[in-house]
Amino acid sequence: MATTTQSENRSRDAMAAQTAKTQRSSRVLGSLFSHTTLIVGSIVFIAPLIFMVSTSLKAMRQIAKFPPEWIPNPVIWANYPGVFTYAPMHKYLLNTMIIVVPTVLGATLVSACAAYAFARLRAPGKNAMFMLVLATLMLPSVVTMVPNYILFAKLGWVGTFKPLTIPPLAGSAFFIFLMRQFFMTIPRELEDAALIDGCGRFRIFRSIVLPLAKPVLATVTIFAFMGAWNDYLGPLIYLGNADQYTLSLGLQAFVRYHGAEWGMLMAASTMMVLPVILLFFFAQKSFIQGITMTGIKG
To answer: Counting Cβ atoms within 10 Å, is residue 213 exposed (0-12), middle (13-18) or buried (19+)?
Structure first.
């Protein structure tokens, strides 16, 4: 009897060990597959960026080689200062910042105020108004392009930065939705305690809500910055003077007038991409946290 019990115990132990071994093997294979897929995908996406940086450090004779050389030899640093001799990049940068700053301010401050109102304040018709704001996201930009242009032309704004700087100051429907969803995840008890202590809504918003909303603020800042920094169609429509060109229009003008200077073109492209990469690099933790936590509570 005892021998039979011991045999059964040994069999169960062997089966448990075999099951554990199989599970470990499955986890290792799954992890290996996931990491291999991520590495291959990363190489595919980062290869054009590496090639752009590599080309920006080459002479023309190196660029024309086939197969291409990924590591430039020698390294031609002169392409970067050479860009400024062929195009007024400093002026393009200043014009771009004139558009970026109001866009980011409107996205973070104005959209945050509207989102907090939709998330916390009580008013008749609030939900219907929020649905109306969301409905504007369903309209493609090409549908409103002509009416907007006619409106701005009658206001005398065409040929100025006003069509690209004043409307963003009113906020964005997408950013309002994003922040509203995040604000609804903040416990109401914090605000109720502040109200009992005599704080007003603006004080609560400034001292409690905004400090807790750093992840979503970082997310919105990155989205707004990238949208304004990379915008090509808006400046192309409303800015007709070469002195008003942004970086995106400046790069297109550089291709049009100096298309054969591939080294300097890639250097200019690298300088344009670098701020976006640095912004995401330093804010990636808050960015990912803001995206993850948004929409937890509807």
So the answer is: buried
